[in-house]
Every structure is written in structure tokens, then in C-alpha cells.
Amino acid sequence: MKRKILVPLDGSPFAERVLAFVRHLAPPKTSELLLVHVSQPSSYYAVPVPDMLHTVDITHWQEQAANYLKRIQEEWQAEGYEVTSVLSEGDIASNICDVADAQGADLIAMTTHGRSGIEKWVLGSVADRVVRTASQPVFLVRPQAEQTPSKPIERILVPLDGSRLAEQALPAAVELAQANGSEVWLLQSVEFPEYWGEEYAGMHSLPSMLSTEEQEEEARQYLLQVGKGLSNSKISAQIFVTTGHAASAISDVVADNEIDLIVMSTHGRSGLSRWVFGSVAEKVVRLAECPVLLIRSHQSDLPQQEDQNAATAA
């Protein structure tokens, strides 16, 4: 079965830059591309001019969008991809998620910003909403020119907090590592109360704290155990233990070690570091210099006993 990747496009070169990464995510024989353009008719119906409203025929904009998608579709069909185009109308983020569900997409791949497209989407806010509501994994690329990949994915960073919720990102990382011959770097940042933020404000009692050295050793042993499982899948694994704010630690490791891709869960609870992955993932997308693949974790996928433990800890 082919993997179906949904790519939202607004007509701008910025939005199109995610397409260059698709080749490394999935080759033509195993992938189908679903190109989606969402128009907002309400922005065309009436244009204010002095003392009157000028009605605009939106047919022109619809034709322009259709021709744009056709051009992109033909380019990728020439590379051997099966490509389908979808024109939709309405709220952009909602339509992206609805089309993804209706068309059975396995992944949404998009840039975090776009400019000067046919619709002039504000992709920063669109990407935020898609991440929060999509049931599929979301692959995000910042649209800097220097991010066009010139080499395969060689190093994949997987941040973990010690919880099974966070570990739900591992299968996707393993699949990509096997397809690209990549190393997987496992990272845990040991955090202390001053890094926990508002979600822990007002707590009357904090859990007993181990020393820095003890927590780092506990994290190291945990990552070694996870790395052993990767080695059994014939994947080279590196471990990295840091101390400090999770998002900053992830960003620093990416910048200092030429990481090509971050694969992480959007949620995690009751792990060694008590990361709150919703906020961490959001900050990582803004800070990291490489693409990020966000996997929505679900407690329903955990064994029953662990699911109860996670709910109790939350």
C-alpha cells in the first residue's frame, strides 16, 4: 500500500519548499502525493472601494489555483509519483484536516510560513492549527532557502522524556532511519522545577528530587535501553543526555551536530523529566533549524496499566 502524503500549497515558493523533502520521506514507488489548495471565497466576493463595493468574479481565482496545482502535479508525475490535486474552499486549517481524513492521508507535510501566494495564507497560524487538530503526523519545514536538502537524512533526533507516550515517536523514526540508512540520536534533557513552567505553578509539594548526577545517570540508562532496542533493528543509535529546558536543549543539539530531522511526540507525561510535549513541540518548531516530524501520541495506544498510571500522574 502506498503512503499518501498531503501537501498544502498556497501558490507561494515558500509553501512549495516542503516538496523538496518529500523525496527523502518517501520515494515514488511507495508514495502518493495529495496536493491541496484551499481558497477563501469570502475574501473575493467584495472588495471595498470609495463609496461602493465592487463585486469580484472568483472564477478567475479558481482557474488560477487549478492551473497552479496542475503545473505542480505534472512536475511530480514526471518523477514517477502518483499525484492527486484537490481544490477546496473555506477555513484553511479545517479544510486541510478534513481533506486529510476524507482522502485517507497518512502524513501532512507543510512549511510553517508562506507569502505572496494566490491566497496569501498566513501559514504560521495555519500550521499551528493543523498540528493541534490533525489526526495524522505532521511534517513541518521552515522555509529558509538554505533548508533545501542536498543530502539524504543522515541523523534523526528523537527527544524522549522517559514516558511511553513520548516513545510513540520511535516507530516513525525507525522507519525513516531504515529507509535512509540514518543514525538515530536519542536525547533526554533532565529538567528541574525552575524549567517546568506554569503547568507546575502552585503545586504545594514537589516530588522528591534526585541529585543532578543521579537523574542524568537514570536518563542515560533509560536511553541505553531504548538504544539497545534500535540496535536489534540494525539501526545505529547515539544517546545524548543534557540538563536544562527541553526545547532549548533540542535546538542546541540540532545546531551543534548537523541533525537533519527531529521526530518527536506532541505529548508526554510522567516521564523522568516531566516534559509537557505540547508546549515543547511548539517551541521546537520555532527554534530548530531542521524539519520536525510531529507524531500525535495517544494514551489509548498504551497498555492498560500504564495508561492508568499516566492519567494518575497527570
Low-confidence stretches: 115-121, 194-207, 268-277, 305-314
Termini separation: 38 Å
Walk across the major sheet and give the strand order: 5-2-1-6-7-12-11-8-9-10
Number of strands: 12
| Annotation field: number of helices | 13
Largest sheet: 10 strands, mixed
Overall mean pLDDT = 80
CA-based shape: elongated
Q: Mind telling me the CATH superfamily name of the largest domain?
A: HUPs
Order of SSEs: EHHEHEEHEHEHEEHHEHHEHEHEH
Which CATH class of the largest domain?
Alpha Beta
Radius of gyration, in Å, reads 21 Å
Q: Provide the number of structural domains.
A: 2
Give the amount of beta strand, in percent: 15-25%
User: What is the percent of helical residues?
Assistant: 40-55%
From the 3D coordinates, which CATH architecture of the largest domain would you assign?
Answer: 3-Layer(aba) Sandwich
Say what the CATH topology of the largest domain is.
Rossmann fold
The secondary-structure class comes to: alpha/beta
Description:
It is a single chain. By secondary structure, the chain is α/β, with parallel strands linked by helices. The protein has helices at 13-16, 19-25, 42-45, 59-77, 92-102, 123-133, 164-167, 170-180, 193-196, 212-232, 246-257, 277-287, 304-313, and strands at 3-8, 31-39, 46-49, 52-55, 82-89, 107-111, 138-141, 155-159, 183-190, 237-243, 261-265, 292-295. A 10-stranded mixed beta sheet has the order 5-2-1-6-7-12-11-8-9-10, sandwiched between helices. Strand 6, helix 6 (123-133) and strand 7 form a beta-alpha-beta unit.
